């Protein structure tokens, strides 16, 4: 199992940013998700976030909503998410689960943390779990030996940034913009400032996500962040392809471009 | 007289708080409530909470709110005795609180006017809102027109169809109505979409949330703005009957009209509080909105509360003939009132609600909203239980004009 600490130490030694790819479990199909994530790893992603499909993804834009809807229609369940994590972790990428809080809450925090650790997962990203509500999850994660990643946003005050980073282990997720997931024409110029403000409060790696869609954008972000997080752009390739194999190849081509970007 | 002195005091707005019924600093009612939202929204929620905290103790704010409630919304609303309807309630005395007589036709206007004033104090020029029945959307579009705010309303595509009249009203009032086509295409999805707009445009925009659900401070603030219903009704019942009612009945969707009717009575131990959820086609059909009655504790739309969800926390789509009750979540204060036993919640099927809808029209000449008809149907049952000596206050949360399409289909009119 590759840990986040190993990934970021290695990227740092190589003087580059890490590339983090996001895909929901169960999309384009249960096995197709594992194959697509493996293709992203092969193409140069260091870390994979497996999305846990949720019925009410209120932080997600149309691309991820569409993918998640398909995953749920496929009957994707938490056992499938765990199986996906297991398959992806076997490729050697550090593998996390990104999920809204309610599915963990319902499944049971301890049980989820334990099952994720057993599947080879190294942590979670929980975008709607605030520091005030995070204690039970941090305790369960610590007990299972997995990391907890939370988000800071351009609107975050210094106080809030401090509160969030104090709850993070592994890395801090900086949201580049005020808005939902989805590729954008340009990366928000406020993003660099947010990364700098976050660094003032922590020594953890700071990864930037939301709106990154091209190799050039990845290069731009890699100049100031420790990791570049890409989701919707990969998913768009999978959605637009005539079949799973073509989608995988198209997403992998983009990942290769991005992997070059983070090394520029 | 009513037009001179203020009808509203700070205590009316927020209560005296002697019953431990205010949330803690994190917006928790016991286990329930809180904030489960993207970090990006925390500063905006903090700002709303701070501005509201200041406003509720500010005489100028209370004066403005009071003025709008009286001269624009048409408060105080009257009580109406409904003896012919009450014959079907075992002879119990049923008294309606007539929120249907407010401007725009439902209790939603109370909260909307309060939050519209908060929007001005936030210095924001744009409001967004979700709507199910369209009543909250209409009220929001109305207040936006009154105060010169840009207004965008998110409404599930299914609801746009069954409440088409309200869509036209909103457009006429100058609002943009966005039909939401994902998920169940009802209120829950409209809320998701409104949150997506808010997180994107939070610098310029206030999310004028329409019920007592959602992240802190909405459950508390919306309750306070709806609280006037019960405050007035309590005084009026004492005047009319010389005593407090034996029970207060209200329909529960997100829970705003019910908490508004209940809150002033929470400290009155002898007054039973009954909330009626939509049982749709019945509990066992799986097609219902029995969040409190048959749901489980989870997190939806930013708060911990009762939720209709499966064993893995996926929201289960609700069903009700009334768009305003067709919601798989509920305000956290109701979750707390349920668990503490202070209030009791029951289900009313589509058919029971429609029977009460028609009965009130025929016996009293009042056409209620289908949402409110759930409370009426509940009061009929409760009256038979409590007997002819009982007095029951029913919150008639809205009028049925918007429901003519549904009624025409249901009754083959
Ligand atoms: C007339 C009326 N009553 C009740 C409701 C349900 O909402 P709440 O439970 O917040 O009062 C609605 C919602 O649209 C409504 O229009």
UniProtKB/TrEMBL annotation, chain A:
Annotated Pfam families: Trp_syntA
SUPFAM superfamilies: Ribulose-phoshate binding barrel
Major enzyme class: lyase
Assigned keywords, A-Z: Amino-acid biosynthesis, Aromatic amino acid biosynthesis, Lyase, Tryptophan biosynthesis
Pathway in which the depicted protein is active: Amino-acid biosynthesis; L-tryptophan biosynthesis; L-tryptophan from chorismate: step 5/5
Family as reported in the entry's similarity comment: Belongs to the TrpA family.
Name under which the protein is recorded: Tryptophan synthase alpha chain
Automatic annotation (TrEMBL), chain B:
Modified residues annotated as N6-(pyridoxal phosphate)lysine in this record: 108
Keywords: Amino-acid biosynthesis, Aromatic amino acid biosynthesis, Lyase, Pyridoxal phosphate, Tryptophan biosynthesis
Quaternary structure (record): Tetramer of two alpha and two beta chains.
HAMAP family named in the record: Trp_synth_beta
PANTHER family recorded: TRYPTOPHAN SYNTHASE, TRYPTOPHAN SYNTHASE-RELATED
Recorded GO CC terms: cytoplasm
A molecular-function term among this protein's GO annotations: tryptophan synthase activity
Protein name per Swiss-Prot or TrEMBL: Tryptophan synthase beta chain
Entry's EC annotation: 4.2.1.20
Function statement: The beta subunit is responsible for the synthesis of L-tryptophan from indole and L-serine.
Any one Pfam family match given in the protein's UniProt record, by short name: PALP
Lineage start: Bacteria, Bacillati, Actinomycetota, Actinomycetes, Streptosporangiales
EC primary class: lyase
Cofactor(s) named in the record: pyridoxal 5'-phosphate
Catalytic reactions of this protein: (1S,2R)-1-C-(indol-3-yl)glycerol 3-phosphate + L-serine = D-glyceraldehyde 3-phosphate + L-tryptophan + H2O
Pathway this chain belongs to: Amino-acid biosynthesis; L-tryptophan biosynthesis; L-tryptophan from chorismate: step 5/5
Residues of the Tryptophan synthase beta chain-like PALP domain: 72-398
Family: Belongs to the TrpB family.
